[in-house]
Amino acid sequence: MSSPDLLAGNRFRVLRSAGGSPETFTFLCIAQTKTLTQTNTFEDATVPDCDTPLAIPHRKSILTSRGWSGRLAGVADAKRFQDLQADANAETPHRYQFLIDKTAAQGGGSYTGAVFFESLELTSQNNGLVNFTAQFRGDDALVWAAAA
Questions:
Q1: How far apart are CA 66 and CA 140, in angstroms?
Q2: What gap in Å lies between CA 118 and CA 57, rounded to an integer?
């Protein structure tokens, strides 16, 4: 029996688009906690058994949409935090990449898509470090590309 090849947390990284052609992404090093959630939305119908009319009908789920969202949290660095603040204030989405830093054979690759920030929160306790939490929602499709 083989053991799973567990993914270390530093191998899952968030990168922010720096634009350009070809597009380049820079490591968002202040994001220490990263969450990426994919969501399917279904519409349900009750389907009778046509061969047995007295049988209890079964639920049939029909996929109606796909969405994605997530959270970023970490320790704020005033200079690096400016990019997140700009994205939170923007009326258009900004592209981000969620990297699984392994070879293709090991399951590596990246998810890339545009995000809108829903919230950006700064917190501090007892004169300690300033922390941030950002909640975002994906705009359009989240695209998976296997590592090269």
A1: 9
A2: 40
